[in-house]
Amino acid sequence: MLDVKGLSFSIGNQPILSDVSFSVKEGEVIGLIGPNGSGKTTLFNVLSGFLNQTSGSITYKESDITNLSPYKRAHMGIGRVFQNFGIFREMTLEENVQVALEALPKNQKRELGDLKKVVKETLEIAGLQDSAKKKASSLSGGQMRLLEIARTLKSGNNLFLLDEPTAGVSPKMTNQIADMISTLKKDGKTVLIIEHDLPFIGKICDRVIVLDVGHIVLSDTPQNVKQSKELQEIYFGADPTT
Ligand SMILES: Nc1ncnc2c1ncn2[C@@H]1O[C@H](COP(=O)(O)OP(=O)(O)OP(=O)(O)O)[C@@H](O)[C@H]1O
Ligand SMILES: [Mg+2]
Q1: Which domain does 228 fall in, by range?
Q2: Which of 26, 62, 168, 239 sits 20 to 30 Å CA-CA off 56?
Q3: Residues in the 5 Å CB sphere of ion ligand 2
Q4: What predicted TM-score, i.e. pTM, was given to this entire model?
């Protein structure tokens, strides 16, 4: 579904991503981990078209999307969840979901059918159905994040890019987010998720990619990554006894 080849990105002569290559199969849930500043968010920006790579190529569903605008990529079903961005605080939760659905391309909107029903389902996914008529400003940061994710999930996308969805979220909501991602997987959707919470990653991901200073250093099952020496070295420094 997604094929990334030799992707590099530099700012001036400072390399941020270096020769990043990986493939994602349809229906996979992939965790992207790595220390602060290793280039994870930058990779999402390049994949969604907000930053232009210095070199390399991106193929999505057998189309070369390397030079397409973010808008075109979004139309093709690549969904990026921004953190607490695009929630209108003065509108009710219901209205917030409604406007996002109204803004979808015609063909995606048609597929959804009855929008009122989809609004209701979206709020249910986020566990916020009882607050449908409340203003979004009444939500906690964690609840806003849930709403933001739920809204993107219902948007008919096929590939989801989630950047630290559990940051600053209570353990209960972290579980809710994990459930939402499992639902996506059941529906055959593909998910790339940046996360610092390793137990969370272990629970929901089929595979984990580890990024360190702009390079992919590991790509393996959560179990193998957790036990790997490379991960220990990246996060805790090299073991002086070896
Ligand atoms: N607009 C920018 N101008 C200059 N440097 C930038 C810019 N955006 C990112 N960087 C640098 O690129 C590197 C990678 O940043 P990025 O935000 O992708 O890391 P990250 O892995 O998402 O980190 P975190 O875990 O803290 O979110 C960092 O060294 C950062 O300082
Ligand atoms: Mg980041």
Answers
A1: 2-236
A2: 26
A3: 40-41
A4: 0.87
